[in-house]
Design goal:
Length: 156
Amino acid sequence: MAYWEWNSSYELGINVIDNQHKKLVQYINDLHAALTTQNREQIYIVLVGMTNYTISHFAFEEQLMEEAGYKMLNAHKKIHEAFVALIQKYKTSFEEGRNITGQLMAEIQIWLTHHIACDDNDYKECVKNMLEDKSIKQLETRTENKKKSWFSILFG
Ligand SMILES: [Fe+2]
């Protein structure tokens, strides 16, 4: 059984984001597995992968919030920055030879659960609406382009 099981109550209903959150949960499980091997190299590989993935995920989320005109974007960005600083701090401690992984896992689990339930849940509707509008517009453009090509076949 995994250290941390994904729970459907974590879902925001935005597939692309839910999948990225699942990947973060997977990273915690990978970290737990690496920890049981006591292999520092293995732990470090997961730690670096998780840090990079988190930074990319936050950048992606911020991009969506910006496109959606989400009002709390700056506050949300600050929360992300603080979390990245926290992971970096743990990574540095590990590089300096301290064994921080157990503490890090527990802290991230609490942080992520809270962040998804509160902060991410707050942008959910705004981003969902933006994505729906966008896909409707793309559909309209595609239909429009198709119409143009039918038109040129028939009358061009
Ligand atoms: Fe977030």
